[in-house]
């Protein structure tokens, strides 16, 4: 499944400045593995030492926060847009 | 020191201006340090960045000589010493109301309400925005922006108008009418997003990485480390207005949790600088039941906040995925406080209770803190003998709908004494 991943500014050093990249995978876990294979080191910025999504990172598949879905097991259908966003303060 | 990656592609270089005693950005999670810049997240771990300082000698007398607004504490904020010479909204130094009537009704010995409805746009947000305006000036941004539940949007458009900056603010489209009016009357652009506050936040985070948002200062995103420091002034004012003493107990509303963490930081700074006696204090966090992810985590004994989809009349607190939630848990537990929530009905009751006893008309967030105060006293969690301060962060005129159905004329009569006699019988 080919999906697009939007990269936050602080991770664009890994993607050569690209704001959006393509990746493959049936679940978010697969997609992040592929992302890390293509851009070594980026996976460890998104996942902590235990393999979970870091607590100050929000990941969306489409419009849905994956914490409301199946976290890393969330399905990533073909054409889905994945967004990785640092947590921000209130307003 | 690592040079921070700027969030805006063509932003001015780090430390473009004068940030007073601020010396660096520091990650709250891993401690990584960065040069001062328009950055808000740690490159290593995504943790939130906050301001690190090297304070000079600060005395009570020096503060007392300052203006009666937040700039009296400029030696403790990331702003230049001459900040008072530039056009700004000059918020702060709001009333600390001794609430004897409410204290008597609830069976508390000593109670104060820190009433931030007295700020220029009638909420505590004027404090944080004033600091963000200085950062925007320092970084050469031309547009001031934010994601907002309403109060912040009004504070931003007003502050931008006064500072001569463009404004473009983003809110959930279904906000209270008064907040929409306040956010638009000062000029600039007001964009309603179809979705919740968390959706608005996500949109703004993406906009900041796009050329559309280039050279924009989002007060609660890329300027967040500076902006958040404005909440420290609540702690400073409470202590100074009590005669340079930190109260035993404080009740703070929680949306993102940023305000609560900065009140704790403010108290700790006053102690470290020797401006107040070093004694224990408890910080209690208040949420609305319809959006209580931090309270739920506290009660379950968890360290991780599970996001929720908000459904409450307290829209200014309706943040389902609070960025500083884990720190609220840490502070409540460390200080011996607690996290509690109240229903929408209890919020309305509390708004009316505060209005009836003290003549203060709070917005729904103030109803949340007073409602939680009442609940904590009833449950015995809050010590009724200890000196207590409760925050009211905004004006009830902004959330009229919450009480409009229940606050009606006592009677409508012909202008005659007989009719009145009958009506009051």
UniProtKB/TrEMBL annotation, chain A:
Matching entries from SUPFAM superfamilies are given as: MoaD/ThiS
* Gene3D superfamilies the record matches: 3.10.20.30
Pfam families per UniProt? ThiS (PF02597)
Q: Which InterPro entries match?
A: Beta-grasp_dom_sf, Mopterin_synth/thiamin_S_b, Sulfur_Carrier/Prot_Modifier, ThiS/MoaD-like
Organism domain of life = Bacteria
The protein's name: Molybdopterin converting factor small subunit
* Native species: Streptosporangium becharense
UniProtKB/TrEMBL annotation, chain B:
Enzyme's top EC category: lyase
Biological process (GO) annotations held by this record are: isoleucine biosynthetic process; L-serine catabolic process; L-threonine catabolic process; threonine biosynthetic process
Q: InterPro entries recorded for this chain?
A: Ser/Thr_Dehydratase, Thr_synthase-like, TrpB-like_PALP, TrpB-like_PALP_sf
Instruction: Name the cofactor(s).
Output: pyridoxal 5'-phosphate
Residues that bear N6-(pyridoxal phosphate)lysine = 125
Record EC number: 4.2.3.1
Q: Which family, according to UniProt?
A: Belongs to the threonine synthase family.
Protein name as catalogued? Threonine synthase
The top of its lineage is: Bacteria, Bacillati, Actinomycetota, Actinomycetes, Streptosporangiales
């Amino acid at each position: 499944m080919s999906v697009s991943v939007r990269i936050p500014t602080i991770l664009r050093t890994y993607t050569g400045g690209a704001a959006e990249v393509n990746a493959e995978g049936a679940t978010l876990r697969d997609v992040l593995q592929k992302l890390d294979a293509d851009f070594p080191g980026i996976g460890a910025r998104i996942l902590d030492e235990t393999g979970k999504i870091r607590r100050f990172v929000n990941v969306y598949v489409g419009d849905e926060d994956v914490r409301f879905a199946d976290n890393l097991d969330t399905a990533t259908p073909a054409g889905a847009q994945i967004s990785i966003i640092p947590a921000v303060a209130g307003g | 020191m690592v040079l921070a990656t700027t969030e805006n592609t063509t932003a001015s270089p780090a430390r473009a201006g004068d940030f007073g005693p601020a010396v660096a950005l520091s990650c709250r999670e891993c401690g990584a340090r960065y040069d001062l810049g328009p950055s808000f997240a740690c490159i290593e771990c995504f943790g939130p960045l906050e301001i690190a300082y090297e304070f000079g000698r600060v005395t009570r007398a020096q503060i007392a000589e300052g203006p009666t607004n937040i700039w009296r504490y400029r030696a403790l904020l990331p702003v230049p010493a001459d900040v008072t010479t530039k056009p700004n909204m000059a918020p702060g130094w709001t009333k600390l109301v001794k609430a004897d009537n409410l204290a008597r009704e609830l069976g508390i010995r000593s109670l104060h309400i820190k009433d931030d409805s007295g700020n220029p746009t009638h909420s505590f947000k004027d404090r944080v925005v004033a600091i963000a305006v200085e950062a925007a000036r320092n970084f050469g941004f031309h547009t001031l922006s934010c994601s907002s539940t309403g109060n912040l949007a009004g504070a931003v458009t007003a502050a931008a108008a006064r500072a001569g900056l463009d404004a473009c603010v983003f809110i959930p489209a279904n906000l209270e009418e008064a907040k929409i009016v306040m956010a638009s009357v000062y000029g600039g652009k007001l964009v309603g997003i179809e979705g919740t506050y968390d959706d608005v936040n996500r949109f703004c985070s993406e906009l900041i990485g796009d050329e559309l948002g280039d050279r924009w200062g989002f007060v609660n995103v890329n300027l967040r480390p500076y902006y958040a420091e404005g909440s420290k002034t609540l702690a400073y004012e409470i202590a100074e207005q009590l005669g340079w003493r930190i109260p035993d107990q404080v009740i703070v509303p929680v949306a993102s949790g940023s305000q609560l963490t900065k009140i704790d930081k403010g108290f700790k700074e006053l102690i470290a600088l020797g401006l107040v006696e070093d004694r224990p204090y408890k910080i209690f966090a208040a949420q609305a039941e319809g959006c209580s992810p931090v309270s739920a985590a506290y009660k379950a004994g968890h360290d991780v906040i599970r996001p929720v989809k908000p459904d409450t009349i307290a829209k200014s607190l309706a943040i389902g995925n609070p960025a500083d939630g884990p720190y609220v848990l840490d502070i409540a537990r460390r200080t011996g406080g607690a996290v509690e929530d109240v229903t929408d009905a209890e919020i309305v009751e509390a708004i009316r209770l505060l209005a009836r006893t003290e003549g203060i008309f709070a917005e729904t967030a103030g109803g949340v803190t007073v409602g939680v105060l009442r609940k904590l006293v009833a449950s015995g969690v809050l010590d009724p003998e200890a000196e207590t301060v409760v925050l009211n962060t905004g004006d009830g005129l902004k959330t009229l709908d919450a009480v409009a159905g229940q606050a009606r004329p006592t009677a409508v009569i012909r202008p005659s004494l007989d009719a009145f006699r009958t009506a009051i019988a």
